[in-house]
Amino acid sequence: MAPMKLYGAPLSWNVTRCVVVLEEAGSDYEIVPIDFGTGEHKSPEHLARNPFGQVPALQDGDLYLWESRAICKYACRKNKPELVKDGDLKESALVDVWLEVEANQYSAALSPILYQCLVFPMLGGTTDQKVVDENLEKLKKVLEVYEARLTKFKYLAGDYVSVADLSHASATLCLAATPYASLFDGYPHVKAWWAGLMVRPSVQKVAALMNPSA
Ligand code: GS8
Fold this sequence. Notes:
Bound molecules: S-Hydroxy-Glutathione
Order of helices and strands: EHEHEEHHHHHHH
Shape: globular
Strand content: 5-15%
Number of helices: 9
Low-confidence stretches: none
């Protein structure tokens, strides 16, 4: 069977979220870059893959998926179901909880910081420090919850690595390129959890993709 196609440039942490999980799952896939510069993401071809004109999109045969976390869960269910704990009602529910936390608490605070500190300056704009500071405060409150959770468990959903942990990796790698790279120093269990994730080959692969000159 042909490899799955993941559409989107590996500069986007929503795209690389999928790369981490596809790698962890041992999926057969290839990355097909989409050029924002030419508006390729709004072309009829890409709108057929993702009707919102965004990346990522995944093609597996005649199946088209979008939304990075849905793509991640699909890759797990297809190639490494233990990462979503399918078949265990309680554990799979906890994986779902922490994947939602990643999206709606962690990334909801971290993404605006990354846009302000990395994306806007790269596009010739400036950083709005007020937005950064507000979201840093939100992120610190989220990290307090993580610290308490990771004091009790090795990973977020329990003592097993899951798609919920892996889903944090791509945006967290970007945090290192901001002035807040040492943010986790105040949260020792979060810091140890992240150190454990960062050495995984899947995360190392994404680190290299995001920073090809390193
Ligand atoms: C967000 C995708 C997204 O914002 C997901 O896949 O998780 N909830 C979705 N993609 C951005 C680039 S990456 O940050 C995008 O494609 N933006 C272009 C646009 O919105 O026009």
